[in-house]
Write a structure and sequence with these properties.
Layout (H helix, E strand, L loop, with lengths): L9 H16 L6 H8 L13 H27 L4 H18 L1 H10 L5 H25 L5 H15 L10 H21 L1
């Protein structure tokens, strides 16, 4: 079983460099030759791993949406009967980890989602809706008087806050994570007071 300390596979290296290049210069501003050069293979050599740039973009955006959903489900399962505050903290921590560690994918999603084939874009949206609904359930357990549409709006607002990391300076990961966590909890508390 692979662990985070294992060396990345060639496929993972390609995806990492594609994400970096797409985020820096846009999907159409990058050719397969550049992606290949970034990982030490020829552009045509990429076709042994991916059908093309479109497939790389789809795997990046569908993949991160799936990872967020899977991670949230795992956190909910691990929380068991914990208080809603602890469950919400766990969800926030998981999203902050994503937002700080995968800033390029946030940029990529913001700029390039419309480049996906319809079926891939629909899958991303479906995974995202499921992810949002997990959060909505936890927020409503914590703030039972908050109507479902308001809870959903609060979740989307907090995601906007947390996903602002590509625009933040770098005061340090721990400082940023703690600040984002406080702000997210404050936003949900304010929504619950309404």
């Amino acid at each position: 079983m692979a662990t985070r300390t294992d060396a990345p596979t060639r496929r993972e290296q390609i995806l990492r460099e594609a994400a970096r290049l797409f985020a820096e210069r846009g999907f159409h501003g990058v050719g397969v030759d550049e992606i290949g050069a970034a990982v030490g293979i020829s552009g045509p050599g990429l076709y042994r791993h991916f059908a093309g740039k479109d497939a790389m973009l789809a795997e990046l955006l569908v993949g991160i949406s799936g990872q967020l959903l899977t991670g949230a489900k795992r956190r909910l399962a691990e929380a068991g009967g914990e208080a809603p505050e602890a469950v919400l903290d766990s969800l926030i921590e998981g999203h902050i980890d994503f937002a700080l560690d995968d800033r390029r994918l946030i940029t990529l999603h913001d700029r390039e989602l419309d480049r996906l084939r319809d079926s891939d874009r629909k899958l991303v949206r479906q995974l995202q809706r499921q992810y949002v609904e997990l959060w909505v359930g936890v927020v409503r357990r914590l703030h039972p008087s908050l109507a479902e549409p308001s809870a959903r709006a609060a979740v989307h607002s907090v995601f906007g806050l947390l996903n602002s990391t590509p625009h933040l300076g770098r005061p340090g990961r721990a400082v940023t994570a703690e600040l984002l966590h406080r702000m997210a909890r404050g936003a949900f508390a304010a929504a619950g007071e309404g």
